Amino acid sequence: MTPAEEPTGPKSLLAQRFRGFLPVVVDLESGGFNARTDALLEISAVILDMDENGVLFPEATHSFHLEPFEGANVEQSALDFIGIDLESPDRDAWPEEIALPELLRKIRSAVKKHSCTRAIVVAHNAHFDLGFINAAVDRCGIKRNPFHPFSCFDTASLAGLAYGQTVLAKACQVAGIEFDNSSAHSAEYDAEKTAELFCGIVNKWQELGGWPLPE
């Protein structure tokens, strides 16, 4: 964010809650585990909002199916696991150099709306997703990446603390969040369930008196 884009108005509750960061819940599907060599095939981002009582909730979901970048590695075992058919005529995939800037533009708009300084990735095992985002940003030559380059909020760790579970489906079950295993491994579905989980943990912490901190 350039100096001209720095928020000038009063900080929103959401900006105050996370030290100027806007949490954006991300999930992606890939053609393997190596962010530099393996294809990014799906990406979904859930932008969060906060009401006047400090209750955090999912506000909007933005999702894209992506074409593998030129020269990308795609493991058949990965496709089998996540259930993606790259040749399906219904897949409606975008080149990442078109889809990624569009997604990041929506996130930058939300950052500005909430008078935040930048976004921060929230994800289940978040450094995996952040690594793929950073690699795609580099490939596409994007100069205005709204996300913090290395900090993130990991719901696997948070769920381990809050519920004693680190697997997304099991954490959701303990938290009372409906989870359909047949829909899992879709970036959009997993991102929305991760967003429910993250919001639930943050809101429960507030109910217990953990935020705002006493003056």
Automatic annotation (TrEMBL):
Cofactor note: Binds two Mg(2+) per subunit. The active form of the enzyme binds two Mg(2+) ions in its active site. The first Mg(2+) forms only one salt bridge with the protein.
Family the entry assigns: Belongs to the RNase T family.
Summary of the function given for this chain in its UniProt record: Trims short 3' overhangs of a variety of RNA species, leaving a one or two nucleotide 3' overhang. Responsible for the end-turnover of tRNA: specifically removes the terminal AMP residue from uncharged tRNA (tRNA-C-C-A). Also appears to be involved in tRNA biosynthesis.
UniProt key word Disulfide bond: no
Swiss-Prot/TrEMBL site (Important for substrate binding and specificity) positions: F33, F81, F128, F150
Pfam families (UniProt xref): RNase_T
Domain Exonuclease: 22-207
GO molecular function: 3'-5' exonuclease activity; magnesium ion binding; nucleic acid binding; RNA exonuclease activity, producing 5'-phosphomonoesters
Record keyword Nuclease present: yes
EC id: 3.1.13.-
Gene: rnt
Name used for this protein in its record: Ribonuclease T
Active site feature: H185 (proton donor/acceptor)
Enzyme class at the top of the EC tree: hydrolase
Cofactors that this protein relies on: Mg(2+)
Quaternary state and interactors: Homodimer.
GO biological process, one term: tRNA processing
Keyword terms: Exonuclease, Hydrolase, Magnesium, Metal-binding, Nuclease, tRNA processing
